[in-house]
Amino acid sequence: MRKRMKTTAAVLALTLLTAALAGCGDQGGQSSSDSGQSSPESQASNEKSSDESQPSDQGQPAQSGEVHKLTILGPDPGNQFIKYEEREEYEVWHALQDMLAENGLELEIEAVPQDQYTMMIQTRMSSSSLPDIVNVSPIDDASLIAMGKQGTIQELSGLIGQYSNGNIERMYKEKYNTGYPLIQTSEGEIYWLTNLHKGNTYEGKEVVQGLGIQIRKDWLDKANLEMPETLEDFTNAIHTFREMDVNGNGQQDEIILVDCQTFANGLAQVFGLGNGIVALDTVNGKIVSPWYQDHVKDYFAYVNQLIQDGIIDSATVGSTDLQNQRLADNLVGSWYAYDGATYLDAYVTNGTEGVDYEPVFTLTDAAEGCVPWKEVETSQLVWDRYCITKACTDLEGVVKFLDMIYSEEYSDILTWGIEGKDFEVRDGMKVSLINSMTNEEKGAAKRSSGSPLWGGLLPRVQTSVDYPAKEAWEEQQRTENKSELKIQALEKGVDYKEWCPLMLDNFLAMATDEENETIKRVQTGIQTYSDELCIKLAQGTASLDDFDSYLEELKELGLDELIAVQQARYDRFVQSQN
């Protein structure tokens, strides 16, 4: 799961644990040079010396029986306010330790700074210094399968069958029934397990998390304008912001943020375009590319005009630092985020009061015959990868750990925290007592669920609430400080038909060896060319008159092959669900 254009603050540099480890795994620790980068969805974090050591994360031994000691490697969660380094001050952390002790488990966790994890994990997996369990999310499927064939990581289906108490199977086959086709090879092998997420429902309907255009409602009010419903309304509003100097700084410098190097920006979806070099058309069950879709040239012509008018500052394209600075300086009238996001207003840090970003669910009439799409984070998600390495010899212990992870009890503390303090049960439904708090407030009070505190170091299994009525769901949203406009946008997403998934991989069965070879051969070249061409067309340095030649280049790079491979994977996924 990702947060669009989320601020990237200075990276928290947690010390790596280097104590000699007993039980499963290699002896010895990790040098300070063996560190790597986090996933792009990570939250912002603060700077801290990487030379400061952390204590081991061990539960108390079980009352009787063997204690299984396991070593784990992963990226520090990197939350700016709910800091992993302060975990001992959180009651939910001690609940985790108690749960480990009850299951006869002790963990030695090696937390690596997020900005270093991607590079480090590539090197670490080819070294002799391996932990028992490792987050390998930065490594692609094909490389991981190759590691499995070579014996670097262990095949899991046999271990699960031999040692599991049934929790893993129940989670993947019953609660998260789309999970197994996404992690199981055509030969039935499993080399990694994942995070699992299941969103809320009301009246049996899944509540998706839409992404789209956000607009300054306070600026609309100042300009005496209604929330835009058509692209013409929106265009008029963003020009009016500048003409009226709605930020009041004496300059016509109001802009919007549109990441023109990608199609996943909300504005492209207004023109009915997919959100990646390939995307899923869920209405027709087809893998498509926005480069081949009907209104792609209309989209680039519109974006180019906004750049010429100064409404889009071309310097911000691809630059998170500049985007964040424009936000902080109260210059941004519109940007892209989750419809229900409550964190947006805080990005304006120049002292402006009354900032109010609200979602524009979608905009109609972008071009003749155009039906807008909506990018959504679907209710059920499978993401990140956790492997068992060849270093692990306590196979019963590691499966015991996984059975604990894929249990209702662990999911409760990870998703909800401590009952009676962080959540309570009303009429059979869990109700958060802290969701109305900001992360800064939670960090100060040392109250949190487990997910922001250790998610990514340990797998995340996030559960939901099934609300019997829409009204009950709406009331819960209000307790989380969501405005009526945000709630309305979320409700529209429940029944909207023309959508494309944020995480396409959640709809693609595991690739075969041959498919992986094709993906590896063509995808990087296509992505690079697409990103560069998007910027050139948006800025006008490439002409739309030559569009057919660009399509020919994309075909030569293998775009049609990529579409065919992903269509075959999607078809197998659909078949598995039937």
A few lines on this structure:
The protein has 578 residues and is an alpha/beta fold. Helix content is 35%, strand content 15%.
Describe the structure.
With 578 residues, this protein is an alpha/beta fold. The chain has 2 domains: 68-196 and 384-460, D-Maltodextrin-Binding Protein, domain 2; 209-377 and 469-578, Periplasmic binding protein-like II (D-Maltodextrin-Binding Protein, domain 2). It has 20 helices and 19 strands. Strand 1 (68-75), helix 1 (91-102) and strand 2 (105-112) form a beta-alpha-beta unit. Helix 10 (296-308) packs across helix 18 and helix 18 crosses helix 20. The relative contact order is 0.16.
What topology does this entry show?
Elements lengths: L67 E8 L15 H12 L2 E8 L4 H8 L8 E3 L5 H10 L6 H7 L3 H9 L3 H5 L9 E6 L2 E2 L2 E2 L2 E8 H6 L8 H13 L11 E2 L10 H4 L8 E3 L4 E3 L7 H13 L11 H9 L3 E7 L18 E4 L13 E4 L2 E9 L6 H11 L2 H8 L7 E4 L2 E4 L6 H7 L5 H4 L6 E2 L3 E2 L2 H10 L4 H12 L3 E3 L11 H27 L7 H11 L1 H19 L1
Parallel strand pairs: 1-2, 1-3, 4-17, 5-18, 8-11, 13-19
Antiparallel strand pairs: 3-14, 4-14, 5-6, 7-11, 7-12, 7-13, 9-10, 15-16
Helix pairs in contact: 10-18, 18-20
